[in-house]
Amino acid sequence: MRRRDVLKAATLLAAPLAGPALGAPATPAVAIYDSRHAASRLWAESRTVATVRLDARNDVLRIWRELERSGTQPNVAGVTTWADFQVICGCATEAGLRVRHDLVRQGEVTLVSWTAA
Questions:
Q1: How far apart, in whole angstroms, are the C-alpha atoms of residue 2 and residue 74?
Q2: What pLDDT, on the 0 to 100 scale, is given for residue 87?
Q3: CA distance 10 to 29
Q4: What is the pLDDT of residue 13?
Q5: Disulfide-capable partner of 29 in 3, 36, 56, 74 (CB 3.0 to 4.6 Å)?
Q6: CA 13 to mean position of chain CA atoms
Q7: Where are the domains of the chain?
Q8: Residues 91, 61 contacting (CB under 8 angstroms)
Q9: Could you report the average pLDDT of every consecutive run of 10 residues in the chain (117 residues)?
Q10: Measured between alpha carbons, how far is 99 from 57 in angstroms, rounded to an integer?
Q11: pLDDT at residue 4, as a whole number
């Protein structure tokens, strides 16, 4: 990956992931990202105060169920693929959380920036 690609991805993320536009705090308690995509990794790295960072590449449904079993429903945010977002959206809705999202394009890949609170 070239420096230009990283800067371009960061620029794409700047507006939709600003936090207030999505109605969520800038630093969620849990940050879910997909390590296969540079824009998602950059977003997770920028969340330095997030208590937990979880890689959606490892089965997002299992991750969500483990969060539910922990007994808390923290403020959760992420940048994931559309498919992972659909799973998270269903789980969050079941848990009574409100989900907000924006699309983020990174080349040919469309990622979803979302919050559940």
A1: 36
A2: 92
A3: 22
A4: 46
A5: 74
A6: 11
A7: 3-116
A8: yes
A9: 52 43 58 89 76 83 85 79 91 88 79 89
A10: 20
A11: 52
